[in-house]
Design goal:
Strands 1, 2, 3, 4, 5, 6, 7, 8 and 9 form a nine-stranded mixed beta sheet that branches. Strands 10-11 form a two-stranded antiparallel sheet. A two-stranded antiparallel ribbon has the order 12-13. It is extended, with a radius of gyration of 37 Å. The chain has eleven helices and 13 strands. The chain starts with 19 loop residues before the first helix and ends in a 25-residue tail after the last helix. The N terminus is likely disordered. It is an alpha+beta fold and 495 residues long.
């Protein structure tokens, strides 16, 4: 809003003072003119400017008009400083430039979570070799210089010339986005994998100040170094000694870039150990070693993770501090190319469900079709068996199906049907053979249902009470507002 300051010169000769009536009329005229000029609509950016207003009709001379009108911004001032917008303004980021320009798009953020995501990307590649049946050991080392080394005994990344990029296959997967062997089909190197897009290793390379890859394959050792996503040495190789001729696998050692990650010392041993423990439970044939090196010998840590029991052992570990109602129920089945692995246990002192879902060892934090199938099958099976065994006597009582919000989730629709049918078949057979377990589960479920209904009624009563207190009812219908017994009383009417 702009203000126009008006100042009137005094007349050359003294004049008699105007009457009060003329003075009030002049003030009303001036205020009315200012109001109209202030409330006028602003010109549109897409229409031609309106014609200038007519000159003022009041008999006053203008002097010293303030310069604040010069600060009014014209519509063109909101446009870019460079008026031209053409092909020169369209940028094309080649290679791994896009990753370094917008790292959050690939790893989430450049803080604590993104820093650990780099470790998980390389670790998941090693686990993919395990799930494919070509590896059994993975070693993770957190070195004293804040670099990370991850080694597996899988097949090793191929090193021969790639027919499309005309570079070594190793350099291709390290420097080209969406280059990998996990896209499925007859030409894919993996039938099961956590990786899908072929960007993990190249993203880690782009966001690393230094990266060194070593490959043992076909009796040879290959090595190459990179910096900020670009090779700094050529691919070198030499023949392995006779005693190491059978060695195979891949080792990736990388140092996160200080220009991207401001605090490299945030790599947390226990955070990485939690993910490694999870992977060891999900892959019973995998042994993972985690070691943290430090200049201070007291800070050196070392652990090995190997769980033959798989998911059943995982559920036991999760319920270590609880009171289980029965032994862990678990099974593994393959239907239509989909492998299902389920483990369940109810606990007497647990009042909320803990349901963890995974797809190819990757946690589906917000569920998916596999979790939907599990919940639907549990609900239907327990209801059917409960009514069949007369433990659920009231026909109006039905154990409710679980509800959950789903965002990041498994989206394969065929998985729900497979999980639903497989779990119903197994759970029905198991619970019919173990009626004591069925009794315990149904008793626990019915008590939880009664508690939920009681809590719901209590919430509704509180809401109803609040409504009555906030409304103005006639005297006989209003709630008692006195705490003095002599002024209050109860009355009952029959009829």
């Amino acid at each position: 809003m702009a203000f126009l300051l008006l100042r009137a010169h005094p007349p050359p000769a003294p004049a008699p003072a105007p009457s009060p009536y003329l003075r009030s009329m002049a003030l009303r005229f001036i205020s009315h003119s200012c109001h109209l000029s202030t409330c006028a609509p602003r010109p549109s950016l897409f229409s031609s400017p309106p014609p200038p207003p007519p000159p003022p009709r009041i008999g006053l001379r203008l002097k010293d008009v303030p310069c604040c009108l010069g600060n009014v911004v014209s519509p063109r001032a909101f446009m870019s400083a460079t008026e031209a917008y053409g092909a020169d303004q369209i940028q094309v980021l080649e290679g791994l430039e896009a990753v370094r320009k917008r790292p959050g798009m690939y790893i989430g953020d450049t803080g604590f979570r993104g820093l650990h995501h780099l470790v998980y990307e390389i670790l998941d590649n090693a686990v993919d070799e395990v799930q494919a049946g070509y590896a059994s050991k993975v070693e993770v080392i957190l070195l004293a210089d804040n670099s990370v080394s991850i080694t597996d005994n899988g097949r090793g990344i191929p090193t021969e010339m790639h027919p499309v990029t005309k570079k070594s296959t190793l350099e291709t997967v390290l420097t080209v986005l969406h280059a990998g062997g996990k896209f499925g089909g007859s030409s894919s190197g993996y039938s099961v994998s956590g990786g899908l897009h072929g960007v993990g290793l190249s993203v880690v390379n782009a966001l690393s100040e230094a990266l060194e890859v070593t490959i043992w394959r076909d009796g040879m050792e290959y090595q190459q170094k990179y910096s900020h996503g670009k090779p700094v040495t050529t691919l070198s190789c030499h023949v392995l000694p006779v005693e190491y001729k059978e060695r195979q696998g891949t080792r990736i050692r990388f140092l996160p870039d200080k220009q991207v990650f401001k605090t490299l010392d945030q790599l947390d041993y226990h955070t990485i150990a939690g993910r490694i423990r999870e992977l060891a439970f999900l892959n019973p044939n995998l042994m993972i070693t985690l070691r943290q090196e430090d200049t201070n010998p007291e800070k050196v840590q070392h652990n090995e993770y190997f769980y033959v029991g798989g998911l059943i052992e995982y559920v036991k570990w999760l319920n270590t501090d609880k009171k289980p109602l029965h032994e862990v129920v678990g099974f593994r089945k393959e239907v239509d190319g989909i492998t299902i692995n389920v483990a369940l246990q109810w606990c007497s002192d647990a009042y909320s469900d803990t349901m963890l879902g995974y797809a190819n060892s990757i946690r589906t934090a917000d569920g998916g079709t596999h979790i939907d199938g599990l919940k639907a099958s549990l609900t239907r099976t327990l209801n059917n068996l409960g009514k069949k065994s007369k433990l659920i006597k009231d026909k109006d009582i039905t154990l409710s199906e679980f509800e959950g919000q789903t965002k990041t989730r498994l989206g394969n629709p065929e998985v729900r049907r497979v999980v639903d049918q497989s779990l119903q078949e197994y759970l029905t057979e198991y619970l019919e053979l173990h009626p004591d377990v069925l009794d315990s589960i149904l008793s626990k479920s019915l008590n939880a249902l009664k508690a939920a209904l009681a809590a719901k009624r209590a919430r509704e009563l509180v809401r109803q009470k609040s409504v009555l207190r906030s409304s103005s009812l006639p005297g006989k219908l209003a709630d008692c507002s006195s705490t003095n017994p002599e002024e209050s009383g109860n009355s009952s009417t029959e009829g």
